[in-house]
Design a protein that fits this description.
Layout: E1 10-16, E2 22-27, H1 29-41, H2 66-74, H3 84-95, E3 98-104, E4 107-113, H4 129-141, E5 143-144, H5 146-153, H6 157-169, E6 173-176, E7 183-186
Antiparallel strand pairs: 1-2, 3-4, 5-7, 6-7
Helix pairs in contact: 5-6
Length: 194
């Protein structure tokens, strides 16, 4: 949010909604100045009663600024108090992404580590050159879409879908999203079967 605190008002973009739309809150210059001041006063450290270990299990919500937290709740940008880190961890696990909560040099951070590509020996001979190329792309970019795959391999939409579905079936990719928002993300090693 610090990036938005230097503007002259408008919409603070919070994230992406479940249907792919940008979610935000209409704010004025005074609100942005208040946010800017609050951000300067809080370098992002965890409250003393909350440890890194507690973030991985149910814990109380401790908003630094209850007024801003309440405004986000009323705007339906916050669904539940104290469940954000749990939902982040669950979603990362589902997508095969490693999530690490860290506290370094007085700052709290969430690090998302994309999985390394590891093709089990029994699956490797079954992959065609296009699929290997697609896996390399997904590994480097964190995901691949049907359109990306079509362009990368110069193939039809139908062939791209067939290849991507095969990669999902063998456990190398995970299908995420629905309709036009479908993307394929790397699976974690422990989900792959030999």
């Amino acid at each position: 949010m610090a990036a938005f605190a230097t503007t002259k008002g408008g919409i603070v973009r919070i994230g992406i909604g479940p249907k792919g739309e940008i979610v935000g809150v209409q704010v004025g210059k005074g609100t942005l100045e208040d946010l800017s001041n609050k951000i300067k006063q809080n370098p992002g450290i965890l409250p003393p009663s909350l440890t890194i270990e507690r973030l991985y299990r149910e814990h109380p919500s401790l908003p630094r600024n209850p007024k801003i937290a309440l405004a986000f709740y009323r705007a339906r940008l916050v669904e539940h108090w104290g469940t954000g880190t749990l939902r982040m961890a669950d979603e990362c696990e589902r997508l095969g992404i490693k999530l690490e909560f860290l506290s370094e040099s007085g700052f709290f951070m969430a690090r998302f580590v994309k999985p390394q590509i590891a093709i089990p020996p029994s699956i490797k001979p079954k992959l065609n050159e296009r699929q290997r190329k697609g896996l390399d792309y997904a590994s480097k970019h964190g995901q691949i879409t049907n359109r990306d795959y079509q362009k990368l391999c110069d193939i039809s939409r139908r062939q791209a879908l067939k290849d991507l579905i095969e990669l999902v079936e063998v456990g190398l990719l995970i299908k995420a999203g629905e309709g036009r928002a479908v993307r394929y993300v790397m699976s974690s090693k422990d989900r792959m079967r030999d």
